[in-house]
Amino acid sequence: MGRERTSASGLEAELAKHKGIEIHGGSIRVVFMWRRIRCRETLGLPVTKANIKHAALLRAAILHEIKTGHFEYGRHFPNSKNATNYTAVKDERIGALMERYKPLKAVDITPMTEEKYGYALDICANLLGSERLAGILLPEDIQRLRTQLIATRAPSTANHYLATFAGFLAWCEDNRYCREGLAAACVRFAMTGREPDPLTKAEFDQLINKGCLHVQDSAAITLAVYTGLRPGELCGLAVEDIDLETGQLHITRAITADGTFKVPKTGKPRTVFLMPPALDACKVLIDLVANHEPRTIEIYMNRHESRVESVTPLLSPATQARKKVINEWFVPTSWNTKWAAIQKRSGIRARRPYQTRHTYACWCLTARGNLAFIAKQMGHKDFTMLVEVYAKWMDDASPRELELIWENISHPQKTES
């Protein structure tokens, strides 16, 4: 009896020396944390001091492998059911995965977009910790990332980062580098505070009559307001895009801040039907560049596909410039500078250049334009965006809507004629 007591107390003393080693069912069991999961594995060894020391060394080796990212569950415990359950994802660090993902993503985007994506991914990786294992990330970590992003950034910027990072996480999920559901946790922030702020007709007149010092500026702003073009599309226009006879404008390219040409945002060309003010503006702009030579440009569809065109810039800094060396094309940033100066001279409240696009949409909606037609003119896939973004202006136009509908129903001949 005395020997048994001595032996038992000796084993207890030996167990007490080693954290994460315990007795279970008469056998030694190791306990460790991996991917935020408490793992328990019975070794099938009898309880002896030598076996307890062996288990402690095994556990120390496992912890080292986990820390360095080289742990393989099945190699240590090939007969464990957890070898399958716990190895659904591979041990890879976020930073290393991101460097593999970037060139794979780059084949589908332009160099300018690649730079923006890379910056957004690096920001998210730094906030999460680039040395962290992707396999241990939880939705809670992504929720914390959202909190950090919005703390010092505008919702639009935070949403761009989240959308970019969600693409990376979806790739990680597909390749079993992280658990499922992380990409879905990249929930975008509501943009209710960024409602359209369209120009009034009076403000538009002030811009044209007081803000513009050159006929090119007044024609360009008129064209922007009466077509709803994005700034990059406006700056990328060429004389060859305009058909004065049919009153149509063909949008086939846009220009980026670094002067690179790309396809429009949706990836597809579109035709814009010109209202009389826009058609007149096009005539003015074409006359201004009548003596300009066509320029050869390269338009990128993606990183590896492009097309070459010889076209004449419709809006060109060279039209007004006194310098001999000048860019032939406006880019969105240089147009922003010009737009800001025009607004300041006109005395109206400052807005982003993109508000000319919102102005077009709001004016068309309050004039009871057809939703599908307006959406097509603006390059939207459907009119869902119009309903979501411009609901207020649709409501403003609704009081007389029933009256207008009844008038058309009760006098169909007027509509048909």
Automatic annotation (TrEMBL):
InterPro entries xrefs? DNA_brk_join_enz, Integrase-like_cat_sf, Integrase_catalytic, Min27-like_integrase_DNA_bind, Tyrosine_recombinase_XerCD
Which ranges does the record mark as transmembrane? none
Q: Which residues form the Tyr recombinase domain?
A: 194-404
PROSITE patterns xref list: TYR_RECOMBINASE
| Record GO biological process | DNA integration; DNA recombination
GO-annotated molecular function: DNA binding
From what superkingdom does this record's organism come?
Bacteria
The entry's protein name is DUF3596 domain-containing protein
